[in-house]
Amino acid sequence: MRTPLRSRPVTALRGLCVAAGLAVAVTGCGTPRGVLAPVAETVPGATKVSMIVATTRQVAKDPGTMFTGERGMTPSFAAITVSIPPESARKVGEVQWPRRLPGNPATDFVTLSTDSLDRAQAIAWFNRSVKRTPKRRVLVFIHGFNNRFEDAVYRFAQIIHDSNMDVTPVLFTWPSRGSVLAYGYDRESSNYSRNALENLLQWMSRDPSVGEISILAHSMGNWVTLEALRQMAIRNGRVSPKIRNVMLAAPDVDVDVFRTQMADMGKDRPNFTLFVSQDDRALAVSRRVWGNVGRLGAVNPEVDPYKQEFIDYKFTVLDLTKLRGGDSLNHGKFAESPEVVQLIGQRLASGQTITDSHVGLGDRIISVTAGAAATVGTAAGLVISAPAAVLDPNTRDNYGNHMQTLGNSIADTTTSTGELLTKTPDEALRNNR
Fold this sequence. Notes:
This protein has 433 residues and is α/β, with parallel strands linked by helices. The chain has 14 helices and nine strands. Strands 3-2-1-5-4-6-7-8-9 form a nine-stranded mixed β-sheet. The chain starts with 7 loop residues before the first helix and ends with a helix.
């Protein structure tokens, strides 16, 4: 008996869900979760990096995770200290994740302390740190898409350490589900978080203990950053003069929208440094998904209209295209290159005027091949990456949840379509008015 035509795609996808679900169940879990659970002590020669965290993420039930990828109703705060292995045991630009828990501070990044804070406690921690910092400098880091909370914490600790920056580190982390397949959710979460980031920047700018503020944003984090600065300029008449430097690393921002954001900021803008790379594969996918409009982080700064625009904006532009990246997507060069990350620190130290995530093999395949953000595109990506998910632990971590989400989406669509097909045209029209 032949399957009715309209049922074939649903049947095939249900079979795919079952098969992939079994594969994930058999292979077990991948990289350890809960790396933020503090270890008892570090080792001689290790370096400690302490940071204050402001986040719009939802508080996790597991203290070793601290915050999930879901959206919190109100901003939360925390203080975290990370131990980085001795110089003899690591390479500049790398985050050395523990393969098992507890991590070994002699070879791994480990967490020494985590403290959940209320707003008053966060302000007190911040003020104590700023007063001990030369020239009372603050660096705010905003991560990109596909970042779990621990990704952002450890990457920021690596940047602070490897750049030799003497600043008060402030991590602003927004809700990201930590998977390439959650691009749409992450995009909306960045919009959800722009008011919170603006409020944080407004408050720090008004704090008399702060000397100057620098901002380092990566990937989609540039969107929430530019939106927060734009809102500040509209609300106050300009971006606060305490915000001296804004570093845009691989910005996943529509170039046309970027022009309107710069116009809204006016002429009294901070010093901007832009890091671009024309071989950034993640931004190439983003361009296809968002209507084939260029992304700011992938433009060629030597050709017009960009060349003249950057001159008019008085941007410092660093083209990293010829620099070899540490990942196959070429999307994290700013933090993975020893030369670049040290340049960041040198520029800030002299007063001058940039993610990491567990991207698995299957995720990379999806990033390069998927051209749509709809269910069909996600389903195609899951089909392609299924064999890789069996072999690659980082992909396995994300795969099961997406199969469940896709299955629920298909079931909902099938139910709605089935109900609609059983109705007469008149009934359908009446029920959908």
